[in-house]
Specification:
Blueprint (H helix, E strand, L loop, with lengths): L1 H17 L2 H25 L7 H6 L3 H8 L8 H8 L5 H6 L1 H13 L7 H4 L6 H42 L3 E2 L4 E2 L10 E8 L2 E8 L5 E10 L1 H23 L7 E7 L2 H9 L3 E4 L4 H9 L4
Parallel strand pairs: 1-3, 2-3, 5-6, 6-7
Antiparallel strand pairs: 3-4, 4-5
Helix pairs in contact: 2-4, 2-9, 5-7, 10-11
Length: about 300
């Protein structure tokens, strides 16, 4: 286990250092002009007699909608904004209901970042330097978050594609996703499906082994040992417990395909509770296990 932990870290370091700066730059260049325009609209948003069409038009565009939430300190999630404002962010609702538009505006301005936008609190116009600083700082915030989200999403997609390619290579067939409340509704032996609900919990990939057991696979990437506990011991193991409780150890073989930075002790605990762990850099182990089910 220790050698695999170190090899996975080495793979992670290599991938991260080779990650192109263009990804971050692309997000920055997308959001810098969005913030430049939005920041220029702040005085009209701050008016006592707010035109409800202003917030309504802002939330119509996904990028502007995101930028609006990143005006605050710290940036506010869309769910939190809706909860605090007591309204949806429907453009139609905000344009036609002045009270809803005002509540959204008030939440934003109540927690507006005073370090980026000091002139708003001081009721004056910004200097050109202040304005440019605010645009750059705001675009950096969004770009950094977008890169982090993209990394997690891309790592998982890469893992899923690698698992699917392996299954195809050893003669398995992909079939349509489906809900599987009972095992009889699962794919047939030598078949697999993506993003399917097994019992009450969704699996990234669901494989029907030669011996008719189900192998739900969760793909997990982690950038730190602390994060790895959440990904494996909380998320993947939590699902494994649910599947084992619902269908029994004789019928399901929960697997986590992992890559990145993980704590060996946490992985040992997860395996003791019934979760099999396969490293992304050793997917041949998954093929070996699948082929071994021929003789069970």
């Amino acid at each position: 286990m220790a050698s695999d932990v170190e090899e996975a870290k080495a793979v992670f370091r290599d991938q991260r250092l080779r990650e192109p700066l263009e990804v971050y730059s692309r997000f920055f260049e997308t959001f810098a002009p969005v913030f430049a325009d939005l920041i220029d609209r702040l005085p009209s948003l701050a008016q006592d007699q707010l035109d409800p069409s202003i917030p309504g038009n802002l939330v119509r565009n996904d990028d502007v909608r995101t930028a609006l939430r990143y005006l605050t300190a710290p940036p506010i999630s869309e769910d939190d904004l809706k909860t605090l404002a007591g309204t949806t962010l429907s453009p139609t609702n905000l344009r036609t209901d002045a009270e809803r538009a005002r509540r959204v505006r008030d939440v934003i301005f109540q927690i507006l970042d005073s370090h980026r936008f000091p002139w708003i609190l001081e009721n004056r116009k910004p200097t050109e330097h202040e304005r440019m600083q605010a645009v750059v700082a705001s675009a950096v915030l969004v770009a950094a978050q977008k890169v982090a989200t993209s990394r997690r999403s891309d790592a998982r997609k890469d893992q899923e594609e690698a698992v699917k390619n392996l299954l195809w290579d050893i003669g398995f067939t992909e079939v349509r996703p489906r809900d599987i409340p009972i095992i009889d509704l699962a794919p047939h032996p030598r078949e697999f499906c993506s993003e399917s609900k097994l019992g009450g919990t969704r699996a990234d990939i669901l494989v029907r082994l030669y011996d008719r057991r189900l192998m739900p696979i969760e793909c997990k990437a982690s950038n730190s040992a602390v994060n790895s506990f959440k990904r494996v011991n909380h998320e993947a193991l939590g699902k494994a417990r649910s599947w084992i409780t619902g269908f029994g150890k004789r019928h399901v073989v929960p697997v986590a395909v992992i890559g990145g930075v993980f704590n060996a002790a946490n992985l040992d605990l997860a395996q003791e509770e019934g979760l099999s762990v396969i490293w992304s850099h050793r997917l041949e182990d998954l093929a070996e296990f699948v082929e071994s089910s021929k003789g069970v």
